[in-house]
Amino acid sequence: MTTSAVSLRGVTRKYGAVQAVAGVDLEIRAGEVVALLGPNGAGKSTTIEMLLGLARPDQGEVRVYGGSPAEAIAKGLVGVMLQSGGIIEDAKVGELLNLVAGLHKEPMPVGEALERAGIADLRDRKLKGLSGGQQQRVRFAMAIVPQPELIVLDEPTTGMDVESRRDFWASMHAETARGRTVLFATHYLEEADAYADRVVLMRNGKIVADGTAAQIKASVSGRTIRATIPGANLAALAALDGVRSVETRGDVVLLQCADSDATLRYLLASTRAHDIEVTSADLEDAVLAISAEQEALA
Ligand SMILES: Nc1ncnc2c1ncn2[C@@H]1O[C@H](COP(=O)(O)OP(=O)(O)OP(=O)(O)O)[C@@H](O)[C@H]1O
Q1: Which of 163, 175, 182, 236 is surrounded by the most beta carbons within 10 Å?
Q2: Which atom of ligand 1 is nearest to the CA of 38?
Q3: Total Cβ atoms within 10 A of residue 150
Q4: Could you tell me the distance, in angstroms and rounded to a whole number, from the CA of residue 46 to the centre of ligand 1?
Q5: Per-residue pLDDT tens for 95-126?
Q6: Domains in the chain: boundaries
Q7: Phi/psi of residue 209, each to 5°?
């Protein structure tokens, strides 16, 4: 049996009256790239802090590569990129990276870390003059310099413009291609959709959905079929098994389907439908729907 990279069991954490994390169970296998999604205050940062040993759970157990977070970090197994802190304003980029490398047993050469983070040209610049996006890249270089098995990133692209975000994810992709395990918190659904193997959605301190982006989309909203159907019998379409709703836009019929395959077969066999398109809801629709469901249950 392979050891999980990360294992959280029944983890809770309160701040005063606020239940920041309310019973989280999460296993992350080696090599997985996991996005932690959720609205402000969902408990993402607190969960990350507990798995890094920066906050102690009130209840439950946190394991990183079978040991405590502190042990995993001491072994250089974990690279971290947090939202703030960790930067010495008066130091030069190269000096800071040397300092971090010096704390680890088998760091990669600093020049290589800078190269991989796309900031080789900033080596002799002081941290305080850098833009927010450049500072984020320095944090990323700090995260990878220990050659960690697991990289944990809390909202890594906050403050970056579109181009920097794209470059950042290209650098990140090179790390995941090397088989590293990655957990990142984000507010950008498209980042979760594009870069994660698995999406974990948190709300009010709990995990409310966990699966691939495709599964999460499918679990909520099924698919939409759009087709031109001359003389469509809308009542017959609405009565089909697996059809949730029917709308028309002129000759075009939109069918919300739980089972789009069966509906497609029917359309092709029994109607004059043409120009058929099948689309799945995007992750944003799914997240909104799950959040609304949770709201209704609360
Ligand atoms: N150190 C703290 N002291 C007091 N309350 C805290 C502390 N850290 C977190 N909280 C509270 O716990 C809840 C969860 O916060 P957390 O930062 O984990 O959420 P998040 O999902 O990371 O949110 P965001 O997307 O805004 O970063 C919030 O209500 C927050 O105000």
Answers
A1: 182
A2: 21
A3: 22
A4: 6
A5: 999 998 988 888 999 999 999 998 999 999 99
A6: 6-217, 223-280
A7: -155, 145
